[in-house]
Write a structure and sequence with these properties.
By secondary structure, this protein is an alpha+beta fold. 31% of the residues lie in helices and 29% in strands. The chain has a single domain, classed as Dihydrodipicolinate Reductase, domain 2 (2-Layer Sandwich). The protein has 7 helices and 12 strands. Strands 1, 2, 3, 4, 5, 6, 7, 8, 11 and 12 form a 10-stranded mixed beta sheet that branches. The chain has a two-stranded antiparallel sheet with strand order 9-10. The relative contact order is 0.21.
Length: 244
Amino acid sequence: MRGCWRPAHGRHHGVHHPRTLKMREFLSDPNRFGQLRMINSVFSFYGSPDFLQNDIRVKPDLDGLGVLGDAGWYCIRSILWANDYDLPETAIAFPNPVKNEAGVVLSCGASLHWEDGRIATLHCSFLAHLTTEMTAIGTKGTLHLSDFVIPFEESSARFTIATNSWFNDRVTGWQPLPSEHMVSTDLPQDALMVVEFSRLVRGIKSSGLKPDVKWPIISRKTQAVLDAIKTSLEKESQPVHVAF
């Protein structure tokens, strides 16, 4: 097994926020969003000197995947979510990743490619200011959020959509303008993750239900894309098939 496995729920608890369902409704609307064509995802934060020297994520014998296995995991998961977990065919790492003296990646990026022409880009870094941006672009609309990992606020989360937008007659502005939508929640997304996990366990223990295969499959797909990017990094940005 290449790389390291990540918990199916804990590596992207944002999927449990009610905002995610509202965004899915938009992405699934053929009249407002159309067909998905492009996705871009960025997760970065500026590591302190102590972090870059001592954190387990920069130690090859503790977590050799570095930023790709940490921030990159979230980027990949957001891209797969936008694609309704349809795996890309190919991953191509961007050239010149930044590594520490031990060879652990501190900053890198990649592009993902589907047979029908869909494309996604991602960038993850321990060397840039805290940024968690995700944009999905369809044939008729665009979805954008600036806090896809952890919402800016615990009790609510926002996203912006643009639908059938174009420049005005004088090309001095847009029409219609993008709109912002807010989704409130009584519990933060990490608590909602625990609630869902408890529901699954209770169903198995009390109702004789079988384990839900959804989350392990999503986790494996995320790992498959991560492994392909890692291999492309090792092969100096050669295209690598995503094997699942």
